[in-house]
Amino acid sequence: MLADGTISRTDNEFINKDVLRYVKIIEDGIANSLIYFQHENAYEFQDGRCDYDDCPPINYGYFDFIIVGSGASGSVIANRLTEVEHFNVLLLDAGHFEDEFIKIPGLMSYSAGTDYNWGIKSVPQRNACLAMEENRCQLFRGRGIGGSTIVSPLIYARPLPSDFAKWNALASGWSYQDVLPYFIKAENFSNSASILSKNIGRDGPLWVEVPNYTTPHIDAFLKSNLELGFPEININNLTDITDTNIQGVSRVQINTQNGRRLSVGSAYITPIIHRKNLNISVDNYATKVIFSHGKSNKKHAVGVEFFKNNQKHIAMARKEVILSSGTISTPQLLIQSGIGPKNDLIKLEIDQIVDSPHVGKNYQTHVAIFGLSIETNTSVNILSLEDNVKLYLGGKGVLTMGGNRGAIGNYTIPNKQHKTTLINTQHNNYDLEFIFLTPNRTAGFYQSGYSFKPEEFKALTNNLTNQNTFSIFISPRYPKSIGGVRVTSKNKFDFPSVNPNLLSDENNFDIEAIYQGILLLKKMLNTKAMRHLNAKFKRIILPDCKFKLFSKEYWYCFIRQTSNELFHPVGTNKMASGSNPQNGVVDEQFKVNGVHGLRVADASIIPFSMTGHSAATCVMIGERCADFIKNDYY
Predict the structure, then answer these.
(1) What's the 3-state SS for 488-505?
(2) How far apart are CA 246 and CA 528, in angstroms?
(3) Cys staple from 376: which of 4, 467, 491, 533, with CB 3.0 to 4.6 Å?
(4) DSSP assignment of 85-116, as one string?
(5) What angle do CA 585, 330, 87 make, to 5 degrees?
(6) CB 158 within 8 A of CB 236
(7) What is the pLDDT of residues 343-394, one digit of tens each?
(8) What angle, 0 to 180 degrees and rounded to 10, lies between the N-to-C axes of helices 454-461 and 552-562?
(9) What is the CA radius of gyration of the chain?
(10) pLDDT tens per residue, range 204-222
């Protein structure tokens, strides 16, 4: 740049080279994602020269702490523990660090077709995902430093304070007052997401921004809410800790830094990668926790068995092992290590360490309707890829939006017909979240990314004009359907069997909640703001939904066909008060009940589905777990 502030020819040449480099990165990344063959197992890690038990192990060394999984909790724990110089930490992860393609938020959908996604699918469903191949839901799970935050839409949204009141009733010491300091410690709200509140953080590693991009459709959605009496709120400005219900609409707040994806790995691990007491091992697969006899006849976790470069390795822990592999992989690892339901261990011929009946049970997640398209008479200006890249490199434009998410609405609709006694939630009203997706989204990837059947995908996208059509995900905030994770194979490299059991609650509460959301959306489309765009439901005739268009029967069928889960599975190693494994898998300080020296810290310990998006809670979990550990050893 010249002294007068103008850009010199040399600067222009450099900028153009950078733009062209990113254009190639994007073109190659999209092309590769469309032909990517998703994983069906983890056989790539095993040693084909020997049976598992006969493979001779390689000694990987001794460490104070071993963390298995560098996701939204594990990355935080590794950072905070290595603040103590005499703590020596090993961080294990099956993936690797992000590349420049995966760091572009607007290309989130394509991340499913990369090695950063485990590619796990559910078992065939009876009540949801019926438009997907084999009726199996795609379960996007991140694989790499940062976990699922490297493939997620990056929305940062804390749960309501009332959710923690319920958590605190199940596990004491988990009220909103208890956890709030850890949210604040992690957060770094930028000026774009500025909140005048003492209850948000401004100095933490995890940036929170509002994307520097809007469309007439986002603006109309915000205005339509105002017309219906739903105010514009800030989803993370919950100053009243007794508030049980927040209704309103907000621009999304996401974890980006100047428009680029800021995964928890990028926020917590990349800046400290050169710490001498942090040992990071990527591209390995943990298969078992190693135990020895400890005090009071309890076994003590002393190490981890894992495969790296197709060879078995053993790393030993002087103090503790912390499992942070997520709601699907952590219960699998516990069961393979001898901690799980007694009958399952017997069937798998695994020596029992602890009969822990709740391991793998209580799978809860937010379900959402996909494919709900709204046509308008207003088109966004579709820029060339080169122009979009120029905006992205300046922290602006559609590529800075996490999966094209533009706004969030939270609503409570009175329930006049359903009552429930299910213990997973005390909420009987229809508490809903709307996620607004702008036009110009990556709809072309949905068939391969979500495995839609060809006929269903054709119906969903027939005559769809991407420039003037927006979409809305409708999701119950307190779903009542419960699934589970089971280990069904003796081969430790097979994926577990995951049954989210979506839309399966006996009273049809979850599907009715989504239907009530569609009726609310219908009211929004009738507001002045939306009528100005001539916004209306796209006429979609799915092959298995031969009902009167837009009737209740049609919508129920449409919901069951196109619903899938979001990125928020929790509960498979639920926390409960006390140390009895018959009550919960972990205690209030993440310690696995029935053994010494082992903790679980990830989304699997969250006892039930809450409001908000789980990444924020997982970061808080990591911060809090690290403090508990420091208090025990430092």
Answers:
(1) CCCCCCECCEEECCCCCC
(2) 24
(3) 533
(4) TT--EEEE-SSB---TTTT-GGGGGGGGGSTT
(5) 90
(6) yes
(7) 999 999 999 999 999 999 999 999 999 889 999 999 988 889 999 999 999 9
(8) 120
(9) 24
(10) 999 999 999 999 999 999 9
